[in-house]
């Protein structure tokens, strides 16, 4: 569809297209499975960006008989890919805390003839508001809603309590791309090297303080003893 000039949003790499392709395939399967079931379907993207992603791709080379050059492309992000699903979702809900990106998302309303809601706020708070309000929380249409929630956060932005809330609905499928690199960045070789701010952030994403014991519990020296009387060398222990 046509529209205004699309502003670039730089993020990701080759793996980004792979994960977005997987998401797009899933959304298509989801909509086709539910299209005759009488449900009101929602696509919920809590870190929607601008709807686009900007990438630099190589072009040329010996096989193309031309100089190698970096070419800038603007590709569809998760929001635009979701809007192209056929059959479409009943509702599209996008959250983006960055005001400029949220404004770009608003322009999707002029390009697509669907019910599109854009929330320019913090993702956890906006999700809590959505699912504590009608039609999700009550009303004569409550119970008919089904949805896919896509969480591809900026670092450690998803609270554990948000995941608990989504699970409690029993009506949404959740795609959560866990920020492993961001979590590892908060850790240290010894727990004493993790300051209080980082400890609070890790507790928020894991949902408890248990992570400290799991990550930093002392490990016995020597062979690894496995259940069933076998040790790490495949020898039965007495």
TrEMBL record:
This protein is called what? Three-Cys-motif partner protein TcmP
- What gene, per UniProt, encodes this protein? tcmP
